Amino acid sequence: MTEEIIIAGFGGQGVLSMGKILAYGGLMQGQEVSWMPSYGPEMRGGTANVTVILSDERISSPILSQFDTAIILNQQSLDKFEKSVKPGGLLLYDPNGITRHPVRTDIHIYRVEAAAEAARSGMAKTFNMIVLGAFLKLKPIVKMENMEKGLAKSLPMRHHKLIPANMDAIRKGMELVEAVSVLV
Questions:
Q1: Is the model's pTM score more than 0.90?
Q2: Is 47 a residue whose pLDDT tops 90?
Q3: HEC profile of the chain
Q4: Which of 15, 40, 97, 121 is the most exposed place for a label (fewest CB within 10 A)?
């Protein structure tokens, strides 16, 4: 099993940390992982993306031009990466701020109302974990206990008290994900 993922959005949305937590979860599961962030000099408000590869085999290169999964959190990222999803692949997005929705007919498209749920629950900082939960519902490539270990490894010790809220957000994302266009 090899899963090649791009996570893209604005800086400040937790894009890089989402990828890092997923990568650590894979490590805790004994997988080979690659985590390669990319962001502009402005960070918050600018665009950010991270490539994560999880595999049962050695990873030959972290450089990718096509992905099994694209997790998209803003319009600019949708415009840039929708075409990079391999045919038959998965595109997961949060519709908040999206004006042109995905149109491809050769990929699976799902959405999760993560921004709305994070605002509704008063836990804006769990937005990225809601999205991550939606992804893990669709592709359960990392077990929940390893995601919790990944959170513990990724977060500084002073933030470990937030692990239960983050795990709850992951579970909430699993409940909220909905199909937009699924290949048969």
A1: yes
A2: no
A3: CEEEEEEEEEECCCHHHHHHHHHHHHHHCCCEEEEEEEECCCCECCEEEEEEEEECCCCCCCCCCCEEEEEECCHHHHHHHHHHEEEEEEEEECCCCCCCCCCCCCCEEEECCHHHHHHHHCCHHHHHHHHHHHHHHHCCCCCHHHHHHHHHHHCCHHHHHHHHHHHHHHHHHHHHCEEEECCC
A4: 40
User: What pLDDT is attached to residue 27?
Assistant: 95
Overall domain count for the chain:
1
Answer for the pair 52, 34: CB distance below 8 angstroms, yes or no: yes
Instruction: Identify the domain containing residue 65 by its residue range.
Output: 2-181
List phi, psi (to 5°) of 71.
Answer: -110, 115
Per-residue model confidence as pLDDT tens digits over 97-111: 899 999 999 999 999
pLDDT-derived band at 44, boundaries 50, 70, 90: low
